[in-house]
Specification:
Layout (H helix, E strand, L loop, with lengths): L2 E5 L2 E4 L4 E8 L3 H4 L4 E7 L6 E6 L7 E2 L7 E6 L4 E6 L8 E8 L13 E2 L3 E6 L1
Parallel strand pairs: 2-11
Antiparallel strand pairs: 1-3, 3-8, 4-5, 4-9, 5-6, 7-8, 9-10, 9-11
Length: 128
Amino acid sequence: QVQLVESGGGGVQAGGSLRLSCTASGGSFGSFFSSYAMGWFRQDPGKEREFVATSPWSGGRPDYADSVKGRFTISRDNAKNTMYLQMNSLKPEDTAVYYCAARGRYRDSTKSWEFDYWGQGTQVTVSS
């Protein structure tokens, strides 16, 4: 059974930092995690899910939403089947449920509807 499990969410004051993790298991993740494009998306109640960052399967340059460039860093450890999102200089508008997603295999994307697997989400709340 394919699973993506996020952790690391919580509450923080504006200007603070959080680090989200996403660990993949099951299916072909065990042997082929590196062949999956991985991404972070976020969603506020009543709003559409929006792209935050993606880590290409090819190991190329990550993509970031303009709203998080220079503040967030996406990374991955293929040996641990884990992806991270380091979030610095957090703002109240970053408050949302953050979702980990995977698109496989050997295909990159920044569009949420093109991702195949999703985690359950982790809440990030930034207070002013």
